[in-house]
């Protein structure tokens, strides 16, 4: 795989920005990974996982305060794609009672190698996936 420029997006953590980031990531992944079906499937998985992380920033990181920033970065290193979503907000523990919510981290983990680092302030979600070249190597 040829080297590819990294992607970096920064915006206020507002619902409309999730779609903007998602579309930019889709275009970047198509350019970075190519047009074949395996690359498209990988891209779809990473876009869904990143979208979930971004939605969590919008819904939870700045709850009760003025929304701060959220950042999405993406890069290809050899045969691995890494997408990182960060915020400077506060972690909110998931509800422990019955709810229809709270499945976001499990979803991200089913789509990519997902790591969630919580800090004060801020959360960093790192998503990694090998490319098709990894499986062939």
UniProtKB/TrEMBL annotation:
InterPro entries: Anti-sigma-factor_SerPK, HATPase_C_sf, HATPase_dom
Organism of derivation: Actinomycetospora atypica
Protein name (record): ATP-binding protein
Domain spans labelled Histidine kinase/HSP90-like ATPase: 12-128
Keywords: ATP-binding, Kinase, Nucleotide-binding, Serine/threonine-protein kinase, Transferase
Single annotated GO MF: ATP binding
Highest taxon listed in the record's lineage: Bacteria
UniProt keyword annotation of ATP-binding present: yes
Keyword Nucleotide-binding among record annotations: yes
């Amino acid at each position: 795989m040829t080297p590819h420029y990294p992607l970096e997006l920064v915006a206020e953590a507002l619902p409309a920005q999730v779609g903007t980031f998602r579309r930019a990531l889709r275009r970047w992944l198509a350019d970075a990974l190519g047009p074949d079906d395996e690359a498209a499937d990988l891209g779809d998985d990473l876009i869904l996982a990143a979208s979930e992380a971004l939605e969590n920033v919008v819904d939870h990181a700045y709850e009760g305060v003025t929304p701060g920033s959220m950042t999405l970065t993406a890069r290809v290193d050899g045969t691995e794609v890494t997408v990182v979503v960060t915020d400077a907000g506060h972690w909110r523990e998931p509800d422990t009672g019955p709810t229809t919510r709270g499945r976001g981290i499990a979803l991200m983990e089913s789509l990519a190698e997902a790591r969630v680092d919580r800090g004060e302030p801020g959360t960093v979600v790192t998503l990694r996936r090998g490319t098709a070249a990894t499986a062939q190597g």
